[in-house]
Design a protein that fits this description.
Elements lengths: L2 E2 L7 H12 L6 E6 L4 E6 L6 E4 L5 E4 L1 E5 L7 E5 L3 E6 L15
Parallel strand pairs: 1-4
Antiparallel strand pairs: 2-3, 2-8, 3-6, 4-5, 6-7
């Protein structure tokens, strides 16, 4: 059964953009995601998503994908983002996180 999405893509350039974004999402990796609306979200990618076929509100078939993010700050611990809403992805390596930094000495 095909699911519905607000936006679906059929143009090869759009699908390639989605594919490239997916390729930058690491399995079980912590990332800082910049959305097209300018907001940012940091969370752990549970598993790299895959492109899927969806129908839009008008019944047009096309491609999109959803990524599940684990975030302890969210009530149920998880949230979902449409891949086409992502502008940029920045991996956060453990040595870049604040808690992993050695204490600074005056």
């Amino acid at each position: 059964m095909t699911q519905t999405a607000d936006r679906v893509y059929t143009d090869p350039a759009d699908i390639d953009r989605l594919r490239q974004l997916i390729g930058r999402l690491p399995d079980a990796g912590l990332v800082d995601i910049v959305l097209i609306d300018g907001s940012r979200q940091s969370a752990v990618v549970t598993v790299r998503p895959s492109l899927q076929t969806f129908l839009d509100g008008e019944g047009n078939e096309g491609i999109n994908a959803v990524v599940r993010l684990d975030d302890p700050e969210v009530a149920n611990g998880s949230r979902y983002l449409w891949i086409d809403e992502i502008l940029d992805i920045h991996p956060i390596h453990s040595d870049e996180r604040v808690f992993a930094q050695p204490p600074r000495r005056p």
